[in-house]
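New to this. Look over this protein:
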Amino acid sequence: MTGLVGMATKYAEAVLAVKYREKGPHGMRGGPMYYLAKGANLPRLGWLFAVFTALATFGIGNMTQANAVATIFKSTFNVETWVTGVVLMLMTGLVILGGIKSIGKATSILVPFMIVGYVVGGLVVLALSLDKIPHALGLIFQGAFSPAAAGGGLAGSTIAAAMRFGIARGVFSNESGMGSAPIAAAAARTHDPVKQALVSMTQTFIDTLVVCSMTALVILTGTAWLEKVPAGQLTSVSFGAVLGQSGVILVAIATALFAGSTLIGWNYYGEKAIEYLLGPKSIKPYRVVFVCVVLVGSMMKLEFVWNFSDLMNGMMIIPNTIGLLILSKVVKEETYRYFKWKP
């Protein structure tokens, strides 16, 4: 449900990002801070959004990614978390600080193939567990609406908890409504806001409705989730239960590549937020701090990392949602124009 609603918010964000973007020293720049200031006439809210974005980059775009890679490499290859953190920090630093574009280009090439490989692997697992899929789907609804799911709590609190984690993880996967994606959309080589918005919607569909739903079914058709397997290892153990060691390695490599590309992408979001707040001279110090936090995130406790990320994500969503509501008429007008509909 978060994915379906998120496709609409991702569409609106991209329309506004392209419409209200402006030319900067290194190309086009835009995002919620610009359409809040220029479109909604709320410059202070735009400033707040930039502050929250600069902070959120250390959560969703940094510590959680480093932590995920360190955790899965520890369980799969028995590599110490600090070792993974150092390597990941150096690789990130080479791209961000050293300007080594070859690593960034290699990641951009490998990630699409890895998504295909991950999806194919997941489909194979589900094909071999086809008879268990109906039960898995039933568990999803049972876990969402059954009072017993909250340890005997009231039904209302159970549903609230399910919604809280469902929305949080859904937003984490597709970033819809957060305002991060339109920062990238604003830099796209396009002259039409709606055309870019239609492209941006596909990311939410692929991330949440396809990849995340498939992953959930892979986990629930297995038994690892009943055996108190740590959250960071659930996916790899579930893949490995059907595909053997090759499935575990597939998930580990996919996680590393997905995390690497996310680190680079969120660094870009943070740079644009810092630039908006403090000017171009603040970008280099920000990059140094961002790279150092990679090592910190790889060694921190998973619970703290996720709680920090959820908090910062929520802080980004508040001002961005206000802007989307105020400027909804603009989104409607642009959509009518593109499809030549009559209001």
